[in-house]
Amino acid sequence: MTIEIKTATIQPRRQTYANVARRLGADKPASRYDESMFDLQATGEFHYRPTWAPDFELFDARRTAIVLEDWHVLRDPRQFYYGTYTIARSRMMEAAEKAFAYAERRGHLNGLAEGWARLVHHYLLPLRHYEWGANMNNCNITDIGFGSTITEATMFATMDRLGIAQVISRIGLLLDGGTGGSLTAAKAAWLNHPSWQGLRHAIEDLLVEADWFEVFVAQNLVMDGLIYPLVYRAFDDAGQVHGGAALSPLTEFMLDWFDETARWVDAVVGAAAKESPANALHLSRWAAAWTGRLREALQPLAQDVLGDGAAGILDALAADLATRCRKIGLEA
């Protein structure tokens, strides 16, 4: 007896889900990112208006001055959905874990010069509260923003900010021998030290800003665009002659994250600016206003760490940010 096995090919009626097929066509295979993002925004059939904002629907595109014909133009060039996001962050965190294990095993942070160790406590550890504020601001965008393209990505950003706050906390615990005293002092500095009050004030004002796209520009473009190069590049460079090289591997996560996230932020703001001159005007005005405010707020902290070179470094960082803004269509 012989058995003949035949194979049959079944052609699928379409290559993807209906929400993607409506945009790209049924015969074009879609990426997992497209499938997880297109047209998932609730747009109608709401039962009640929110009691805290009765002028708007629960999800309402009018909550920002930015106007887009299709909110899905705010694509993420990283194409993050759950799978790609968790894989990317797992790889970054694996490298960070190795750096922490190596520093702890060798006691590298004990080599910081005494004066520079005090400065590290002063300029780095209070940033865990800045990251918490950034987490809350991106939570707010996720809550009241419009379009699954942007709110999915800001949800991932909220987790990033908590992760970075935890990395900073672990550095504090390495510095104080695991007592936690450095973190208590960092909270007191964030709340009371004059050098931190300008940044703290700006973060707290953003927490109650009504226009979620302005929050996006202020937090993710301007604040991060000045603070990350200042702290993790300029301050780190200044510490190299004080034994600070041991700290650099522990903050590499932040630099890698900033370089990657900046591509997403620029893509979002650039797409919105390209849509209309009115959008570009709003975005340019927000970027200019928050750059001026942050430039002033960061001056005392930069002075504490860099001394007479602080003003020059801040001017250079503001110029770099202005160049970045011009590249994405803003007037800066």
TrEMBL record:
It holds the Pfam family Phenol_Hydrox. It comes from Zavarzinia compransoris. This is Phenol hydroxylase. One of its GO terms (molecular function) is oxidoreductase activity, acting on paired donors, with incorporation or reduction of molecular oxygen, NAD(P)H as one donor, and incorporation of one atom of oxygen. Keywords: Monooxygenase, Oxidoreductase.
